[in-house]
């Protein structure tokens, strides 16, 4: 049986990107199950959810990243984008403003370099 016989004509081909994202999300989830405070992994999974347009899951992961690291400007900025895409403009603006403030402070007061 050919693929066209088993797939509805209007379904379109499955995107390899979605399968790749599902695989990556599963791998990140396994790591997070072992280490729930893995900020970098949570952030990467949030990005994967965001790219997949799974916005509630992306926001949940961005929320966790920010709860663990309140200075994570990238998570704030990306969460602002998701809020904007969902039409939550006040939340988007608040996150964006906070991210800009954090980045500005880093420019004005860079972290001390270790000797």
TrEMBL record:
UniProt keyword list: Repeat, TPR repeat
Source taxon at top rank: Bacteria
InterPro entries reported for this sequence: TPR-like_helical_dom_sf (IPR011990), TPR_rpt (IPR019734), Ycf3 (IPR050498)
Region (Disordered): 1-21
Keyword Ribosomal protein tagged: no
Protein name in the entry: Tetratricopeptide repeat protein
Naturally occurring in which organism (per UniProt): Labrys neptuniae
């Amino acid at each position: 049986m050919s693929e066209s016989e088993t797939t509805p004509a209007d379904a379109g081909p499955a995107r390899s990107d979605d399968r790749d994202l599902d695989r990556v999300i599963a791998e990140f989830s396994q790591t997070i199950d072992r280490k729930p405070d893995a900020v970098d992994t949570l952030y990467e999974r949030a990005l994967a959810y965001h790219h997949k347009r799974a916005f509630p899951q992306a926001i949940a992961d961005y929320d966790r990243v920010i709860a663990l690291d309140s200075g994570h400007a990238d998570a704030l900025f990306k969460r602002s984008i998701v809020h904007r895409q969902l039409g939550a403009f006040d939340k988007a603006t608040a996150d964006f403003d906070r991210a800009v403030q954090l980045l500005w402070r880093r420019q004005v007061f860079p972290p001390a370099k270790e000797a």
